[in-house]
Amino acid sequence: MTLLEAREVGFAYRGGTPVLSDVSVTVTAGRNLALVGESGAGKSTLLRLLLGLARPSTGEVLFDGRPLRPGRDREFRRSAQPVFQDPYSSLDPRQPVDRIVSEPLRAMRIGARDEIGDRVAQTLRAVGLPADAARRYPHEFSGGQRQRIAIARAIVCEPRILLADEPVSALDVTTRVRLVELLRELKATRELTLVMVSHDLAVVSALCDEIAVLDAGRIVEQGASAAVLGSPEHPHTRRLVASVPRLRRDTGPAAP
Amino acid sequence: MTGEKPMVPDRSPAPGIPAEPAALLDVDGLSVRRADGHELLRGVSFTLAPGERLGLIGESGSGKSLTALAVLGLLPAGLSAHGSVLLAGTQIVGARDRRLDRVRGRTVSAVFQEPLTALDPLMRIGRQLAGPIRRRRGLRGAALRAAVSTALDEVRLPERVAGAYPHEISGGQRQRAALAMALACEPDLLIADEPTTALDVTVQAEVLALLNGLVSGRSMALLLIGHDLAVVADVTDRLAVLERGSLVETGRAEDIVREPRHPYTRALVESAEAFEAEFDRLAP
């Protein structure tokens, strides 16, 4: 089932050269999608269009088959939630965690007031945070825990799609492993489909079923992850795949 | 078992015995403290021989960058270094700026993660590069201009970059320009602190290959600081692993990647391998 679709979208800032041209991607339920490419390729802009945070200059974004009307579509707001890269800037430092996590419920008036506490507690449990996290403030948590708080805020209203911009790039590698596990688990238990912007092909391999490769505002290759990474066709994809740093475990001469 | 995590040394330096004179950099019992006495770096010791490449690896907050800053005598106000940092025979800990000026540039120079912090936004790249070359080699006029274009060529930058301001070139080009400035002083030791972390992965591969070639070409010693085990292990001979301010393991890069002995190093290697396995599964 198609959840979200960008159909031949283009985007340009006023008077500027296009950031995106003729981009089409489809988000299918249960198939995590990665948007990959280098800085300036247009990945984050495409994610913003899919989130309804910006309107395409040409083409359209469809949600459940209908053109997206951001700001007026409560069903969309509830179904598609964002997670950002930097867990230090995406959480209000002056609010306790339960206020942060319950904000989508309050903003969209979901559930009765006396249910909110329970839903927050249940969501914190789902992202692996202790119950006493609710009354604490963001500065009391590590980067990995903060990203769990950001994920809790995103999933508290039980969305169908999570749109995440580099959700694990700011984290240390050991923390990153655990966050990737959490995102996998949420996909399985909550029927949550992830759309992720990432420059890290290893993280993409671990999480995503489909990949769209962007270069200079256009999609140069897209398809199932195994096909795109296993036998990349476009030279740009080939270069990306070849540039991934590898651990050398053999004692032979280093690869050129 | 005490609460202290044991250090797993590759050789045990006996206390009291002076370092072998061959060491270019000899860090011995280096600690860095805040004004309130809190220790951010605890008793870090390692040596670097001329032409050797050492990787300093660890996660955020482990003290990697503090180690680099202490070696350069550039700790921010409010932090104090204790112990000993001997750089080509000069004691850095407690040294005044005049003594430091004699080693900075000539003996050691540095490249950091964000090249914009190393480049003056109001000065064309060529002029910025000419500064250290003029001071180090005393060149003027046409000879200086020729040296600038050679320096640009060495880091694979086109000559027109000399006339550009930092904001007019890409991130990868800026890092090459910063590298050219660091190399212009012909130092014996280059300290590179996360030099490719802010770059795209294809640009990272290019800059690493460039760094690798330039360091070998000049038989310069390299202290490469990073969080990405695959990147650091690929360019260096030896690794030193920092965890929360303490050195927990040192050894040959190959050995550490193949057989990490300290639990923390093992966690780092296993995490890196887990991601690599996911990638290998799809892109063999």
UniProtKB/TrEMBL annotation, chain A:
Query: Which InterPro entries does the record match to this protein?
Result: AAA+_ATPase (IPR003593), ABC_transp_ATP-bind (IPR050319), ABC_transporter-like_ATP-bd (IPR003439), ABC_transporter-like_CS (IPR017871), P-loop_NTPase (IPR027417)
Give UniProt keywords alphabetically: ATP-binding, Nucleotide-binding, Transport
Q: Which Pfam families match?
A: ABC_tran
Q: Which organism is it from?
A: Nonomuraea fuscirosea
Its name, as the record gives it, is ABC-type dipeptide/oligopeptide/nickel transport system ATPase subunit
Q: Which GO terms describe its biological process?
A: transmembrane transport
PANTHER family assigned to the protein according to its UniProt record, in alphabetical order: D,D-DIPEPTIDE TRANSPORT ATP-BINDING PROTEIN DDPF-RELATED, TRANSPORT ATP-BINDING PROTEIN
Highest taxon of source: Bacteria
Q: Does the keyword Nucleotide-binding apply?
A: yes
Q: Which GO terms describe its molecular function?
A: ATP binding; ATP hydrolysis activity
Coiled-coil stretches are: none
> Which family does the entry's similarity section mention?
Belongs to the ABC transporter superfamily.
Occurrences of domain ABC transporter (ranges): 4-241
TrEMBL record, chain B:
Q: Which CDD domains match?
A: ABC_NikE_OppD_transporters
Keywords of the record: ATP-binding, Cell membrane, Membrane, Nucleotide-binding, Transport
- The question of whether Isomerase is a record keyword is answered with no
- PROSITE patterns cross-referenced by the UniProt entry: ABC_TRANSPORTER_1 (PS00211), ABC_TRANSPORTER_2 (PS50893)
Gene Ontology BP term (one): peptide transport
Question: Where is it found, in Gene Ontology cellular component terms?
Answer: plasma membrane
Predominant subcellular localization, coarse grouping: membrane
**Topology of the protein relative to the lipid bilayer:** Peripheral membrane protein
Top-rank taxon of the source lineage equals: Bacteria
Write down the Pfam families for this protein, in alphabetical order. ABC_tran, oligo_HPY
Q: Where in this chain does the record put each ABC transporter domain?
A: 25-269
User: Is Cell membrane there in the keyword field?
Assistant: yes
Name the InterPro entries for this protein: AAA+_ATPase, ABC_Ni/Peptide_Import, ABC_transporter-like_ATP-bd, ABC_transporter-like_CS, Oligopep_ABC_C, P-loop_NTPase
Cite the GO molecular-function annotations of the record: ATP binding; ATP hydrolysis activity
Give coiled-coil spans as residue ranges: none
Which subcellular locations apply to this protein? Answer: Cell membrane
Q: Which SMART domains match?
A: AAA
Q: Which family does it belong to?
A: Belongs to the ABC transporter superfamily.
Task: Tell me the protein's name.
Answer: ABC-type dipeptide/oligopeptide/nickel transport system ATPase component
